Every structure is written in structure tokens, then in C-alpha cells.
Amino acid sequence: MQNKQKNLHRCSYEGCTSVFNRPYRLAQHLLVHNNVKAYPCPEKDCTKAYTNKSHLDRHINSVHKVPDNDMLYSCPTCSKRYANRQNLKRHINLHHKLKIPFSCDICKLNFLKKHQLTSHMYEHTGIKSFSCELCLKEFVSLHEKKKHVRSHKTHRCNQCPATFNLWSKYQKHVKNDHLGKEFICNECDRHFKQRSHMVRHVRTHLKIQTRTFPCPYDKCERIYSRNSNLRQHILMKHERITHECQICGAELCTKAKLTMHLKLHSQPVMKSKPPKTKMTGRKERKDLGSLKVSTAHKLAGIPQTYKPEIINVAF
To answer: Which backbone phi and psi does 79 adopt, to 5 degrees?
Structure first.
């Protein structure tokens, strides 16, 4: 007998690949796309609604219906009880269904991965189980081996014979040696490593006059290169619109500066150390009582044979 080909019912929404073998299942699936929840909860003051009757029944049994002790689903491991089979299954998968396939035969410790057990065995045998295939150097853990293997990897420059053991050094070499002459000024043939530097240099050849923004108030000669700076100047100096600190009364020109200023109040006050004196342990001068020579005499090469006296002159 030939197998009858099943009639498949596909979802017509773009991007949805769901296929059903019953038309009522497709109709139920379309409710999800249309956001139609045809099964509201009949309990009073409950606004829950579902697209599937089985979901509604599960909601009623777990939230509104008080089951008998015989109907409770109890966990066989910890005896915790649930109102339905789905919640019990979720609990077992999360808390009790943990597979630990690798166990140490000596101390009975369990490990999720084989290389973790292999690294642990070094504590019992003293043998390093991981070795580098290139230099045969041995390591305790797989992480240490992988970190060491990266030191053997080289990065060859595709524009010159240079090789590097670190990717960062290779990138620095390409930037400095091969990309350094990429931006060339057509006027003076000057080379630049970055495009922004060349653009700034080209402006010197074009002799573009920079636009300035003078202050419009009388007797104010301030000039700014940006209009935003001019607006800030007008608000602060002429219109006296400032942001005042409620703690110390300081006036700041912008809200951002006020925020930075408030952080200074929240920081702990650093106590300055008192100056040391002879009473608190200050050391004696090493040149105490010796002849002092001024710097001017040293530079002039004149030996000083007397100690200058300090004369107080009253004006």
C-alpha cells in the first residue's frame, strides 16, 4: 500500500515557517499573530486571557483552584509540591536533573568537563597532562596550554617580510610603516599618517578665513570661534543666567559644570598634614652652622668667604 501524503497547512504570515497537520491547529496558531486571546479567565477580578484552552485550564488549576492533597504533584527528591505536572517537570529539570559525567576516583569530586578532571588529577599524581605540540612544554590546565600556544602563532605582513608574534604589534607595524604615506598633500607633497591631519594642513594652503562671532553688546570686545561659546558668554556675563549651587552659593555657567561642582561636595574632605617642627620630630639641617654660598657667586666663580647677614630695614 502506498503511503497517503498528508495535507500540510502552512502559516501564511511572512517569516513564519510553522506547519500543521490539522486545520484547527493552524487556525489556533493564527490567533497568536493577530494577538487574539479567545479564552479569558472566568474568575472574578482576573484579567488573564489565553489563545489556547489548555493554557487557560492550567492557569485555573494552578492559580484559582485549590487542589486536594491527592492531586498535588510532589517532587520525589525534595518533596516540594506543585499544582500541575508542568511546574513539577520544570522544577526537576532546573534543580535535580544535573548530569555530572566526570568523577575523580580518589577524592570523589565531580566535574562537568573532562579537561577539568584531568587538571584536577595533578593534585594526586603530580603529572602535568597537557603539553605543547611544538616545544613539548607541559602545563597543568588546558587554559595555560592554550595561552602558551598563542605565543607560537606568528603574523606575517603581506606587504613586507616582517613577522610578529602579537597581533597588536603587527597592526602597529602596518599603521606606521605602510599606511603612513597614504595621505599626501597635492600642494607641497607632504605626507600624513592620518586624514584629519592632512585636512587641517590643506586649509593653510587655501587661506580660508575663519568665521568669528563677536559679542553684540556695547563695550564688550569678546570674540569667539563658535556660536555656542558666544551664547554661553551672553547668558553668563550679560543676562546673568547662571546655575547656583545650593550648598555653597557658587554660580556656574552651565548645568554640566554645576554637576561636576556638586561632586566636589560629595567627596570626602582630605585633611592636610600639619607641618613638622622640632617638637614633632623634624630633623636638623645637615648644613647647620656651615658657610653659605649664594648661587650668584657660584655662577660667577667668586668664592664667598663670609656669611651674609640679614638686615631688617624699616620703611
So the answer is: 65, 15
Q: Could you identify the residue written with the cell 613577522?
A: 163
- 10 by DSSP, 3-state: which? strand
Q: What are the CB-based long-range contacts (under 8 Å, 24+) for 118-124?
A: 118/142
Q: Is the distance from CB of 89 to CB of 82 less than 8 angstroms?
A: no
> What DSSP letter does each residue of 255-293 carry, written as one string?
HHHHHHHHHHHHSPPPPPPPPP-TTTTPPPPTTTTSPP-
Give all domains of the chain, ordered by start, each with its CATH number.
9-95 (3.30.160.60), 102-149 (3.30.160.60), 157-206 (3.30.160), 221-262 (3.30.160.60)
Give residue-wise pLDDT tens across range 242-259. Answer: 778 888 888 887 778 888
Read off the pLDDT of each residue in 34-56 and give the average, rounded to a whole number.
82
Count other Cβ atoms within 10 Å, centred on residue 63: 12
Provide the terminal-to-terminal Cα distance of the chain, rounded to the nearest Å.
131
Residue 184: strand pairing partners:
191
111 beta partners: 102
Question: Are the beta carbons of 174 and 181 closer than 8 angstroms?
Answer: no
**What span, in angstroms and rounded, lies between the C-alpha atoms of 117 and 113?**
7
Residue 131 amino acid letter = S
Residues 63/84, Cβ–Cβ less than 8 Å: no
Q: Quick one: which of 274, 247, 280 has its CA closest to 262?
A: 247
Compute the average pLDDT of residues 171-190: 76
Contact call for residues 173 and 162 (beta carbons, < 8 A): yes
Of 157, 179, 176, 177, residue with least CA distance to 166: 157
Residues contacting residue 150 through CB under 8 Å, at least 6 positions apart: none
Which grid cell is 264? 566636589
pLDDT tens digits, 151-180: 887 888 877 888 888 878 888 888 777 765
